[in-house]
Specification:
The chain is built from nine helices and 22 strands. It is α+β, with helices and mostly antiparallel strands and about 375 residues long. It has two domains: about 80 residues, NE0471 N-terminal domain-like (2-Layer Sandwich), CATH 3.30.2020.30; about 180 residues, 4-Layer Sandwich (Double-stranded beta-helix). A hairpin with a 4-residue loop joins strand 5 and strand 6. It is elongated and about 80 Å long. The structure holds N-oxalylglycine and zinc ion (ZN). Zinc ion binds next to loops.
């Protein structure tokens, strides 16, 4: 957008835009963001904020093409791009190519409604990678199909996004029924809907489960959108939602070599009150330790959330086939599986995680490439 008027006011610059909106930029902000304060190569800030007055005095402002020139009482001259001022209006979050709104889903999405993308295209083509990541960000869930029949085929796809997240289960993990399991996942029992590793300070972001074999009887996969469950709980039982977002509970995993534990609420909200994370795993929830007079109400809220995870209105079930990989935001979408009978056939999933920050970074870099292509 272009500027129709500039006015120097005490302690601020007032900008009127062509759509009639007015934006006020405090002079301390203008000086803090003067391009001369950035390292020319890295674009990181080198300016020392404390070298400025708290309210630098602006004496003149004028437009010159795509920039505005600012002159300060101490003699400093700034050349600020109009596009920068437009993109960073105080009080408005700057556009973020990774901040894709969540499309909440329930059982009526149907397993057939889960976005599907082809492995070959994701590996070969950045536009296909971008389309897959955008769908996975919106739904919190997607299926990649056509993977090669080798253990590293899933990590090859995950590696297109960024670094794999290493945990106490390794950089990758084999979901197979094992003789001496340290985790219920490594048995053949049913796993009720859960998020993985809520006992970690930061639970893993996106989870990848590449199906190499699923020949046993049973072993279907179950998913539910934790954000949809929480949104409905917030609307229908706001007190339960409040308790789940305000009261921290312990989560703990321990085996011979580890004892990893945190205290966090089931629902984490951001500073604006929006839900950003679900931690729900009945198997590794620790011993609740809120005061006893809060316990009955807390159990009521926790059971209300848990009951929704059992409600068919939220659940999608499907049986993964060899060559398919399910990908989901482990801090949003709950996953589980039906029991299977290992005597009837082999079942083998190969798993890994990529954190949300890596995922968002790849989305931004891919969007950057697209903006440049569109501008050329
Ligand atoms: C897990 C898990 C699901 C499955 O390994 O954490 O949830 O389908 N596995 O076996
Ligand atoms: Zn799991």
């Amino acid at each position: 957008m272009t500027i129709t008027d500039l006015a120097v006011l005490p302690g601020m610059l007032a900008v009127t835009w062509t759509d009639g909106t007015l934006t006020r930029y405090p002079t301390i902000w203008l000086r803090d963001n003067c391009p001369s304060g950035l390292h020319p190569q890295t674009q990181e800030r080198t300016l020392d904020l404390l070298s400025l007055d708290h309210s630098p005095e602006l004496v003149a402002a004028e437009r010159s093409g795509p920039h505005i020139g600012l002159r300060y009482a101490d003699g400093h001259l700034s050349t600020m791009p109009v596009a920068f001022l437009d993109a960073h209006r105080p009080g408005m979050a700057a556009a973020d190519a990774a901040a894709l709104p969540a499309t909440l889903w329930r059982a009526d999405l149907g397993a057939a409604g889960i976005p599907r993308h082809g492995a070959r295209a994701i590996l070969a083509d950045d536009a296909a990678l971008h389309a897959w990541l955008a769908d996975t960000a919106a739904f919190g869930l997607s299926i990649v199909e056509g993977l090669d029949d080798r253990v590293s085929a899933g990590t090859d796809i995950a590696g297109r996004i960024g670094f794999l997240r290493r945990t106490n289960f390794g950089t990758t993990f084999e979901v197979v029924s094992k003789p001496d399991p340290n985790n219920l996942a490594y048995t053949s029992v049913a796993l009720p809907l859960h998020t993985d590793l809520p006992n970690q300070e930061v639970p893993p972001g996106y989870q990848f489960l590449h199906c190499l074999a699923n020949e046993a009887q049973g072993g279907g996969s179950v998913f539910a959108d934790g954000f949809a469950i929480a949104a409905d709980l917030r609307a229908g039982d706001p007190e339960a939602f409040r308790l789940l977002s305000e009261i921290a509970i312990p989560f703990r995993f321990h085996d011979e070599g580890t004892d990893i534990s945190v205290r966090q609420p089931v629902l984490t909200l951001d500073g604006k009150g929006d839900l950003i994370e679900v931690r729900f795993n009945a198997h590794i929830a620790g011993v609740f330790d809120m005061p006893s007079d809060q316990m009955p109400a807390y159990y009521g809220a926790y059971r209300a959330f848990m009951a929704r995870t059992r409600d068919p209105a939220y659940r999608l079930t499907l049986k993964l086939k060899a060559g398919e990989m399910v990908v989901f935001d482990n801090r949003r979408v709950l996953h589980g599986r039906e029991a299977f009978d290992p005597s009837t056939g082999h079942r083998h999933l190969h798993g890994c995680y990529v954190d949300r920050g890596e995922f968002a970074s790849r989305l931004r870099v891919l969007a950057r490439g697209r903006t440049e292509a569109a501008a050329a």
